[in-house]
Each structure stands twice: as structure tokens, then as C-alpha cells.
Amino acid sequence: MNFQNEINNDIKFLAKSEIRLKILSELYDSPDNVRGIVKRTNITYSSVSSNISKLEQNDHVEKIDNQYYINPMSEIYFKTLMDFKNSVDLITDYNDFWDNHNLNQLSLDCIKNITDLKDSQLIETTPLDIYKTHNTIKSQLLESKSVKAIFPYLHPEYPLLIEHILKNNGSVELLIPRSIYKAIMSRISDKIRKNASKRGKLIAYPIKDDLKIYLTICDESMSLGLFKDDGSFDQNRILICDSEKSQKWAETLFENIKHDVIK
User: Fold this and answer.
1) Helix axes 34-41, 18-29, angle to 10 degrees
2) Residues 133 and 26 grouped into a single domain
3) Domain range for residue 6?
4) 237-249: pLDDT as tens digits
5) Contact (CB, 8 A) for 250 and 174
6) CA 80, 8, 42: angle at the middle one, nearest 5?
7) H or E element at residue 160
8) DSSP 62
9) Is residue 90 part of a domain?
10) Same domain, 71 and 107
11) What does the alpha-carbon distance between residue 98 and residue 177 come to, in Å, rounded to a whole number?
12) Considering the domain boundaries, does residue 88 fall inside one?
């Protein structure tokens, strides 16, 4: 219990000072002296000197040959605080995307690593561009040779987009509701579909259970769409991202959902 209180006090000590967090952020990247930290942060010399002394007194940093180093346990505290801050920022910045939406198919791993989407961009339709979300998705698909996707509903252009990818020797892996499986497959050129399936370039899983999430993983980007709490798909907004971490996050989500729904 004392150990837990000690951890709580350490985290509180760090979290209540933005200057201390800024100093730790710099030392997390690389060791430095006081003047170096001042130069990198634009914080006054007296503030850096005062706060780094407090960090040293509380065993969060160590001075070796006039260079300050962050201690291993403090690295863990700092990363935890930054992950929490980034998670809060991501949810707050895109509140319209997350709030009143069904998040049940987000795996525990994906929720835990939600900060992997911190470089995302929210794409929303406007009165002057009601097809903005779909056109963004369409552009991503047209520019990709390898696609993994969860399509929870049928859009008339999906079969044509899939056919375009396959025609250019690309590969497509799909999770789609059984109710729309035939409608999508039958609208792809019979010759292209059969040839791609034979070569393992087209893999489509007809899912009996409802899919309450939209996801595409393309060559350079991913996109995520959610259903509202009332059960309807929110076609007015999607989250897109092109960072390497977001791609891995989306891959994890796709594989987790595939594992859960394929019986």
C-alpha cells in the first residue's frame, strides 16, 4: 500500500508542473545540461534550474558529468502521463467522432493503444460537399494495390473499386455481412473475380454477425468509421491517418475482429 502511495505521489509531483514535464520531455529525448535545456525549451534559466533541482531531489533525474539523465522509473511515469494526455486530447479534439457512437468492436488492445491515432485527421461532410467522406475513401482505394477492409454496408461503387484494384494485380481482403456478400461479388467482373480468388488475391469472408464498424487499410493510409448508438452508420465523418503506428493499429483491429467473427 505504501509503495502504491509512493507511485501516486510521484506521478502527482510530475503532473502538476508543466515545466517539469517539459524538462523530462527533453531529457527523455537526450541528456543535457541546464543551459542546453533552456535553449531547447525557451524556459528561463532560473525556472529550469529550480525545477531540475526538485526533480533531482525526488530521484527523477541524475546528474553525471554536468549532464542530466532521466531515471528509468521516471521514464515509465513520463510515458504513462504522455499517453494519457494524448488519449484525452484525441478524444476531446474529435469528440463528435467518438461521442454517442458504438465502440463495442474496438478491441481492448486498440483502446489501450488509441494514441497510435494521434496524428489522425477528421474528415466531415459539409452542406456543400455531402460526399466528402466517401470521396476520401474512394481516393485511398484507387491509389492502393493492397487493401484490407471491413465494409458493413453496400455502396454502389465498392464492387468497381475492388475490381479496379484486382485488375491492377492488387490484393483485397474483406470482411462483409453475409446479407450483402452476393451483391458485392456479383458486380465484380466474373473473370477478374475468379482469377483473383484462384491466386489468393481476393479473399472475402461473409460474416453472419452484424459488423458495427467501418475500416480500410490501404498502402499509405487507414480510415475508420463508426456506427451511432441508434444503430445507423455515421456517413458524415471518418477518421483517417497515414502514420506507421496507425497502420499497425488498424491491422491489429482488423485481425482481432476477423478472429472474433469468423466461426
Assistant:
1) 110
2) no
3) 2-81
4) 999 999 999 999 9
5) no
6) 55
7) helix 158-167
8) E
9) no
10) no
11) 23
12) no
CA-to-CA distance for 92 and 1, rounded, in angstroms? 33
Cα–Cα distances in angstroms (integers) from residue 27 to residues 7, 43, 206, 263, in the given order = 20, 14, 51, 49
User: Which residues does the chain have with pLDDT short of 50?
Assistant: 1, 3
User: Do residues 237 and 151 share a domain?
Assistant: yes
Residues 10 and 124 in one domain: no
State the total domains in the chain: 2
Distances (CA, A) of 173 to 107, 176, 260: 20, 10, 16
DSSP 219: S
Whole-angstrom distance, CA of residue 141 vs CA of residue 216: 8
The residue type found at 93 is D
Of 79, 54, 80, 82, whose CA–CA distance to 68 is shortest?
A: 54
Do 8 and 131 belong together in one domain? Answer: no
List of E strands, 81-124: 101-102, 121-124
Backbone dihedral angles phi then psi of residue 68, each to the nearest 5 degrees: -95, 135
CA distance 166 to 192: 7
Residue 110 placed within a domain: yes
How many angstroms separate the CA atoms of 137 and 223, rounded? 7
Domain match, 108 and 26 both: no
What's the pLDDT tens digit per position in 7-41?
Answer: 567 777 887 788 988 899 899 999 999 999 999 99
Closest C-alpha to 10, from 83, 61, 65, 84: 61
Q: What pLDDT score was predicted for residue 255?
A: 95
Q: If residue 203 lies in a helix (H) or strand (E), which one and from where to where?
A: strand 202-207
Instruction: Out of 16, 47, 81, pick the residue that ends a domain.
Output: 81
**Nearest alpha carbon to residue 159 among 151, 109, 69:** 151
Instruction: Looking at the structure, tell me whether residues 246 and 142 fall in a common domain.
Output: yes
Radius of gyration of the chain (CA): 24
Any domain includes 86: no
